[in-house]
Design goal:
By secondary structure, the chain is α+β, with helices and mostly antiparallel strands. Helices cover 17% and strands 39% of the residues. It has 4 helices and 23 strands. The longest helix has 31 residues. The radius of gyration is 31 Å and the shape is elongated.
Length: 350
């Protein structure tokens, strides 16, 4: 029921900006928190198959990451979001309890929260804060796409793991690189395999590969990898077409140079809700009834105009004793094409 229904309308989102809050108690309502590029944090629950709003913040700066946190040993139900170089914290009821400025020169693009520890990354920079105070700093050799952090009873310290564009997972110790792990593609996302006492990390790459790696403070071991067998690339560029009616089409060119339709899909994600449109388009929809009435009048206006021009043409030659009614059909054809020059030429040559 949850998957099949359109529960809540939000704006454009970044990866890792939707989280499922823990449900406490047998009858507790499962809640979802999601943040978008309009800077709005929305939380809703599900009751009898319907979305029930919990809270919704005011618009603000674009939100690019979200994580859940809380004190060690307690339910991880506090919501943390980052916008620019700022991190904010909210309770599950929507009350803001934290505003932290990381003072980075670039915007935060990855974040992980664990107890009182906050780990954030900009493009190449990693920072670790504890109780909002600087702890560690690291400059990566390539762009950082994501971050996670291992913490369990078997580890003497938190172990941050960076997913970097150069096909490497960098495992840190404080402000230094402990070791790195090569993966089969540029890693774009990391996730702890087991939230409680995690020592294993799942990664996903930009070319569709997935893997599981067991990581400790000094070494790592690959448990398994899944290749992207569904990728059907043939090295030939396709033509992607987006039409006004919401249809997306993919055409490929065969050996003869002729395009053929390979895929077609009609997008209906926003059907019934126009909140995603810009204000100018929404105003057109709001005034659609008036616009439709005005449009319905246009054919009558055109018919009267056509009649006036036709009468003018007939009257022009009537006084000369010429009957030009046989040419009226040609005149109407020109009028239907809205070609002013052809109309002037028609009158001149008649």
């Amino acid at each position: 029921m949850f998957i099949s229904a359109l529960c809540s309308q939000v704006g454009v989102t970044s990866q890792k900006t939707m989280r499922l809050l823990p449900a406490l108690g047998k009858k507790a309502t499962q809640k979802v928190a999601i943040a978008d590029h309009d800077g709005i944090l929305t939380c809703f629950g599900m009751k009898k198959g319907e979305a029930v709003p919990v809270f919704k913040t005011l618009p603000g700066q674009k939100i690019v990451r979200m994580d859940l946190g809380g004190a060690a040993g307690t339910s991880q139900e506090k919501i943390f979001v980052c916008s620019g170089s700022q991190v904010r914290g909210f309770t599950k009821k929507g009350k803001q309890f934290l505003t932290f400025e990381a003072n980075l020169t670039e915007s935060i693009n990855a974040m992980h929260v664990s107890g009182s520890d906050l780990f954030v990354c900009a493009s190449y920079i990693y920072n670790h804060y504890c109780d909002c105070k600087d702890q560690d700093y690291f400059l990566s050799g390539d762009k950082i796409n994501d971050i996670t952090c291992l913490s369990s009873e078997k580890l003497s310290r938190p172990v941050p793991v960076l997913a970097c564009q150069d096909r490497v997972l960098r495992v840190l110790q404080g402000s230094k690189l402990a070791y790195d792990i090569e993966v089969p593609g540029p890693p774009s996302v990391l996730e702890l395999y087991n939230k409680e006492g995690a020592e294993e990390v799942i990664y996903g790459t930009t070319d569709g590969k997935i893997g599981l790696i067991q990581i400790d403070e000094s070494s790592a071991a690959t448990k398994w990898e899944i290749d992207n067998d569904k990728r059907k690339g043939d090295g030939v560029q396709d033509v992607l077409v987006g039409r006004d009616d919401g249809t997306v089409e993919v055409y490929s060119v065969d050996g003869s140079g002729e395009p053929s339709l390979r895929f077609e899909h009609e997008l209906q994600v926003h059907e019934g809700n126009a909140d995603f449109l810009i204000p100018e388009y929404r105003s057109i929809l709001d005034e659609s009834a008036d616009l439709l009435e005005e449009y319905k009048k246009q054919p009558a206006h055109l018919e009267r105009l056509y009649g006036m021009i036709t009468d003018l043409f007939i009257d022009k030659f009537k006084f000369k004793g010429q009957n030009v009614k046989s040419k009226v059909s040609s005149l109407l054809e020109i009028l239907n094409n809205y070609d002013l020059n052809s109309l002037l030429d028609f009158f001149s040559e008649a």
